[in-house]
Amino acid sequence: MLGDMVLKWKRRRTAPANISYAVLPDYHRDLLSPKARRRWIIAFFAANFVFGFLFALMPDSAKPMMASPILFLAALIVWMLPETGNPPARMMTRMFFAYFIALILWPYYLAIQIPGAPLIEIRRAFLFLSVFFFLVSLSVSHRFIQEMKAIISPYPLFMKFFYGFILAQLLSMIGTREPTGSALSMIKNQMAWTCVFFISAYILSKPGQILRFSNLIRIVATILAILALFEYRNQGILWAKHIPSFLTVSDPAMIRLLSPVFREGDYRVTGTFSVSLCFAEFMSLTLPFFLQYLVVGRNRLYKLIVVVCDVLVINAIILTQARVGIVGIMVTHGIYGFIWSIRFWRTRKDSLFGPMIALSYPAALTVFAMAMLFIGRLREMWMGGQSTYGSTEGRLAQAAKFPSVFIHRPLFGYGPAQGGRALDFRNQAGEMSIDSSLLSIPLNYGAFGFICYVGIFAYMLVQGMRLAFDAREEEASYAMPFAVTIAAWLTSRIVLAQEDNASFMFMVLGALTALAYQRKVRNEQMAHMLGRTVPAPI
Questions:
Q1: CA–CA gap between residue 440 and residue 402 (Å, rounded)
Q2: What distance in Å separates the CA atoms of residue 506 and residue 514, rounded to the nearest whole number?
């Protein structure tokens, strides 16, 4: 009997793993044998042990990368959601506008800090929720996908530049010296830039949302301008000494952001941004929206209020003592006036006011150039003086060092957020610095990424002006301030590399895409009524 038992046991051990068993109808056979299941369970627990061990050893800055399996599983769950035809677009809209408000009005260095965990930024929480609802909408609604494709269809060349820039970011990570930092920056860019563009394009394509977004831009700019007055009077950031314990950040770099900054004894307003330059840049980017209401607005009382708010915003820019803001004031008002005069000339051909303003621009530029030469105060505000000599020399030194660094990785660069480290330029305080996007973008993403990046904004600047020239409705006319904002952004990128306002600019790209889609829909409806075909977009 014992021999028979041993024989049966040997036969069981040598039996093939894919032996067929009787299965009742409407049931299925397990793909894995019991032994294979045990092996997978052991491997799962071993992987969890290694994962936890590495999590305990890694620094806090690298721990977000350890959440990638959780994000992958979450994305897999979202992808497997059933088709319902009812996307959560309303929640996505609310989270998007909440993200915009938090992006501008909430200082990013005031974050919820839990011991042993990464910082929880308020703006990123709203961004994550808006992206989550966007992905859910793509998963549960085929109609949402088709509508999204239709919204981005008016400008095929722009989308080629856009996808090319995403590809450039991916290719730049090959061989990067800091894979963790590059990967984190890549993820942030895809959420704050790529996803924000698609979300804003969808939301702002709905009737009335462009006007709502423009009003919100004016409101947050006015709030910041009022806070700038109190901050200048306080000679320091208002909340620096009143931060609750759960929002206190122990990072020395972030603590330095709360310290007051002076230039020749005069305080420089910072607002909710990291440095005065970024604050001045954003305020200058909002100026076209105040000018727009002065042109198309109907309520005289509101126009008076807008004039007061515009003056407050300009005053806040002056309090920053940032040349990028002063240049932004001149660029936004100058370009807006030029576009408006051309549009006025085209729409009211019986009036001489439009051509008079448009044709006077060459003379005005000549007068301005002469004033720059002979008026010291104006020249100092535009070009800088003794107080800004150090920053000017630093930018020139960075430009001189750029070719020798760029030539080592000219095609795809050193990786996201790695351009400054590759340039390795130190300012007088010994801090690593890179002060121009003309240097940071090529070093980060290479020549290919730089061409795509400039192509994105330059192409949409031209198309935004074309939309503004052809606009007939009030909402469509807001292509003008969005286009002027892009012109001001490209100008500020010459002397500024910080990306505090980059997410906002991708919202601007989404807004112009939405306006192009609205025009396409109107043209198709008109062509359908007249029985004609609409030409294909270029």
A1: 9
A2: 12
- The string of DSSP codes covering 456-470 is HHHHHHHHHHHHHHH
Report residues of the chain scoring pLDDT below 70: 1-32, 55-68, 114-119, 246, 248-255, 347-365, 367-369, 371-390, 429-430, 531-538
Residue 472: how many other CB atoms lie within 10 Å: 9
Helix (H, G, I), strand (E, B) or coil at 272: coil
DSSP-derived 3-state class of residue 225:
helix
Q: What is the 3-state secondary structure (H, E, C) of 350-382?
A: CCCHHHHHHHCHHHHHHHHHHHHHHCHHHHHHH
Contact 510, 200 (CB under 8 A): yes
Please report the DSSP string for 490-501 in residue order. Answer: HHHTTT----TT
pTM for the complete prediction?
0.84
Gyration radius from the chain CA atoms: 28
> Are 216 and 222 spatial neighbours (Cβ–Cβ below 8 Å)?
no
**Cα separations in angstroms, 264 against 33, 267, 268, 388, 395:** 78, 8, 10, 10, 20
Q: Which residues contact 526 (CB under 8 A, 6 or more apart)?
A: none
* CA–CA separation, 191 and 127 (whole Å): 7
Cβ contact 247:110 at 8 Å:
yes
Helix, strand, coil percent content, the chain, rounded in steps of 5: 70, 0, 25
Closest CA to 220 of 297, 277, 272: 272
Q: For residue 436, how many other CB atoms are within 10 A of its CB?
A: 16
- Tokens standing for residue 289: 């929206």
Give per-residue pLDDT as tens, 261-285: 887 788 999 989 988 999 999 999 9
- Pair 141, 83: CB distance under 8 Å: yes
Query: Helix, strand or coil for residue 267?
Result: strand
Q: How far apart are CA 456 and CA 255, in angstroms?
A: 36
SS3 track for 25-90: CCCCCCCCCHHHHHHHHHHHHHHHHHHHHHHHHCCHHHHHHHHHHHHHHHHHHHHCCCCCCCCCHH
Residue 9: count of CB within 10 angstroms of its CB: 10
pLDDT at residue 512 in the model: 96
Rounded to 10 degrees, what is the CA torsion of 462, 457, 333, 511?
90
Instruction: Tell me phi and psi for residue 77, to 5 degrees.
Output: -65, -45
